[in-house]
Design a protein that fits this description.
heterodimer, A: five-stranded antiparallel beta sheet, three-stranded antiparallel beta sheet, 3 helices, globular, B: elongated
């Protein structure tokens, strides 16, 4: 676990459920009925990640940034207070975070999924897909 | 209180949207948040920021009414654009309000 001056904390895969010890899952809003939509049709969001072009590898890469990431939530209630429309999905307790991905947080009820190491956008997308396959639709939709 | 650097981008973007929509108070508050080292929000500021977030949310629903794949009519393009906004500008702004300013768009959870 790495903690920055700004009080952001980075959780490695093996640390995730030790920190989120008292919740059954962490949640993700703005999904569809068939997908949590971690990555959009145009690829990972540059709004939430640091994505740069690597002129040596000739590919776009995700650079770790502990203040950024794809938003998750410690509770459904938080998503309702934000009024984030869409289907609510959950990452159940015990789900395995693919190696290389991390969760960052400043507020514990707002975990941010990001790359923990520099990796190509393609690799990041593939890893989020592995994670998405472990996610379950809660049956809740915020309209 | 001083705005954390990671929120500058979303606050500036929101200030631009507020200016375009001719929402003078919201534009002024957001511009001040982005530029001043210290800030303190009034009751009016909080109310206007919450109303602005609700406006963005309502506009997304009005522009993409057929986003919900559990109801007919459903249009895939509406879903894609609506969810992109929820995951993008709206979601980032709503999270900024809650995490940084302790302003919930819906103080009572919406169902």
């Amino acid at each position: 676990m790495n903690q920055a001056e700004d009080k952001y904390t980075t959780l490695q895969p093996e640390e995730l459920w030790h920190i989120y010890a008292n919740v059954e899952a962490i949640f993700r809003g703005a999904g569809s009925g068939s997908s949590p939509k971690l990555v959009g049709t145009k690829g990972p969001s540059a709004r939430h990640l640091d994505i740069i072009y690597d002129p040596v590898e000739c590919v776009e890469v995700v650079v770790p940034n502990l203040t950024k990431g794809l938003s998750f939530s410690g509770s459904v209630e938080r998503l309702q207070r934000l009024n984030i429309g869409g289907a609510v999905w959950k990452l159940p307790r015990g789900a395995i975070l693919p190696k290389g991905l991390v969760f960052n947080y400043r507020e514990i009820d707002h975990p941010l999924l990001n790359a923990g190491v520099r990796m190509s956008v393609v690799e990041f997308s593939a890893k989020t897909l592995v994670l998405a396959k472990q996610m379950v639709f809660t049956g809740i939709r915020i309209r | 209180m001083k705005l954390r650097a990671q929120y500058l981008e979303i606050v500036r973007e929101a200030a631009g949207v507020a200016a375009e929509e001719e929402f003078p108070h919201v534009a002024r508050v957001l511009s001040a948040l982005a530029s001043e080292s210290e800030f303190r929000l009034s009751t009016l500021d909080v109310d206007q920021l919450r109303t602005f977030a609700r406006f963005i949310r309502a506009r997304a629903t009005l522009r993409h009414p057929y986003w919900d794949d559990s109801h007919e009519p459903y249009v895939e393009a509406h879903e894609e654009e609506f969810l992109e906004l929820m995951n993008g500008f709206y979601g980032a702004f709503a999270a900024f309000l809650l995490d940084e300013l302790s302003i919930a768009v819906e103080p009572q959870p919406a169902g």
